[in-house]
Amino acid sequence: MKTHGKISSEMEVEVPASQAWDLYGTLKLIDVVVPDLFKEIKILEGDGGEGTILDLIFNPGAPFASYEERIHKVDDENMVKEIDVSKGGFLDLGFTLFRICWEVIEKTPSSCITRVSITFDVKEDSVANLSYVSILPFIGMMKATTNYLLKNQTK
To answer: Which family does it belong to (predicted)?
Structure first.
């Protein structure tokens, strides 16, 4: 048996959806979030498209020193990007799936909604590790990204 779950959060951003997706849908996101949330992110394989593998090295105090992610899906038309933890981190804690989904949804021509969702499966004998699942770091990433987008908005 496994326990399944999903949590999400969203934020309205006063920039066109295409500008937000230009950040969320590419590896440019790394440059925005590294200073605040990560010590370093290494690109092990790929160019940001499906199959790209990243090694995330966390700042001290995080629940993990590092883990690897694989970009599972990049859908430019629907502005959806799915990333799976592929080695270490949550997988070492009994999770069989830990997927982060970034979405950009057009609201008006000059604004959009950014949404992050975490979907996970954890083995029954590891349910106690659900306490490590938190949307807060991803909300921090959205805030950093929103600030960046607003400061660097192209008209």
So the answer is: Belongs to the BetVI family.
Per the annotation, the verdict on 81 as an active-site residue is: yes
CA-CA distance, 67 to 64, in Å (whole number)? 7
Cα of 57 vs its chain's centroid, Å: 14
Three-state DSSP class for 34? helix
pLDDT (tens digit, 9 = 90+) per residue, 108-141?
999 999 999 999 999 999 999 999 999 998 898 8
With contact defined as beta carbons under 8 Å apart, do 119 and 133 qualify? no
Q: Which stretches of the chain are DSSP H helices?
A: 17-24, 28-37, 136-151
pTM (2 d.p.): 0.91
What fold, for 2-151? Answer: Alpha-D-Glucose-1,6-Bisphosphate; Chain A, domain 4 (3.30.530)
Q: Catalytic pick from 42, 73, 81, 123?
A: 81
- For residue 95 the two structure tokens come to 């999770």
Distant-in-sequence, close-in-space partners of 143: CB < 8 Å, separation ≥ 6: 11
Residues 44, 153: Cα–Cα separation, whole Å: 30
Query: If you search the block for the tokens 């949804």, which residue do you land on?
Result: 105
